[in-house]
Structure formats: structure tokens, C-alpha cells
Amino acid sequence: GLFRRSPPSTALRAAKDSYNRAQAVDLDLAGVHVAAVLLKMYFRELPTAVFGDGAGSCGYETVRGLPAASAAGPGDGEPAEVARQMDAVRVRYVREVVLAALGAAYRQLLCHVCALLSVVARNQTANRMPAHNLAIVFAPNMARSRNPVDDVAMCGAGARAPTVGGVLQLMVERFDQVFSAEIARALGRSDADDPATAILDAVDAMNQRPPSPLAETAEPTTHTSPSIASASDSS
Hints:
Blueprint: H1 9-20, H2 27-30, H3 32-44, E1 51-52, H4 60-64, H5 80-98, H6 104-122, H7 124-127, H8 131-142, E2 143-144, H9 148-153, H10 164-173, H11 175-178, H12 180-187, H13 195-207
Parallel strand pairs: 1-2
Helix pairs in contact: 1-3, 3-8, 6-10, 6-13, 8-10
């Protein structure tokens, strides 16, 4: 149930408040479900959603332009090469069109998060969270426009879905290919044996740096990044 279970509200609120005060948070004490929900809340509270009609978002029309995947299954008579070619076309569309519609900061943010989700999906036999399930969980937190009905319609996932969920599923399943440029930028190289794990190791290294004096104070401070304003998890 990773990313699906709601943690104790007191633990979630304490972690949220500490982050919003620029204090260090020990997620080993808070628990994995607190960390999972905080990550979803962060995307939900961004002033401008990753996908939608806000300035800097990737618009829904761009998402709907995702080329259709092959509808043929094994034994349907379609050459495997055709299916591979269609898969490559979809990956290229997400890399060169969807990501290009976003600013550099959002592209790098998605790269870091999808690295985590890619590793989670690898362990789906233990956590029951394949790429499809992860896309269903995260899409509602990343899609927001002035039309709530459109938002709901765009959150569906599936291998052939031209939706935010479908794009996220592809980002997780084909992480190395979709985020090739962002991976090289984050790592300073492009030859990592396991890019997703290398990205997570780089994030861990950043998190282990000594806290700044600001992080040791308890006084609220003004941030340029969005705060996590809600202690409830509705998705």
C-alpha cells in the first residue's frame, strides 16, 4: 500500500510543520507512509500544477497528443518490431514534447521523483505498486486546471491512455529513456549502470550534508518553494 495508506495525522502534521519551518525532519522516525504522503502533498500544493492550464504547466492538449500504443497483444499477428517502434515513438514524444513544455525546474523535479517511482515499481511483487498503480496515485496530485471534470478525465492511467496518468506511467516504465538529458545533468555523466539508483544516491548525498544554521532554528521563514499546507490526504 505504499503511497496509498494514510499515516497517523499527528505524525504527518508534525513532519509538515517542521518542513515548513525549515527544520530537519527525521523520516526514519516519522515512517515511510508519512514520507509517501508528504511527497504527494508537495505536488498537490504547488502554486502551478505540473499538468494543467497554469503558466509553465504542460497543457492537457499536449498530453492528449501522446501517440497511441499498439492495441495488438501477443498472438495477434502484429510483428514485435512494430510494437517496439510505437513504444519508441511514445517515449520520444514524452521526452521531446511533454517535457519540453515544462520549465527546467519541473523537468528535474520529475526526474528525481520518477527515479524513486521506478525503483518502487521494480519491487512490485513485494509492494504491489507497479507503474500503473503509481500513475493512478500520483496523477490527481499533478493535474489541476480550471475544469475539475477535465482534471478527473485526465487522471486515468493505462498503457494506451493519452492522459496525465498514461504519461506518468510511461515516465516510470521508461525512466532511463524519457529522462536521459535530465539524468546526465543531475549526475554530470550519462553512463550510469543504473540511472534511477544513481539519482537516488545523489539525493541521499545532498540530504546528508550538515544542516545550515537556518535549519536549526524554530522560527518560521519565507520560502521560495511551496509549503506543504494541508495535513490531510484525499487521494
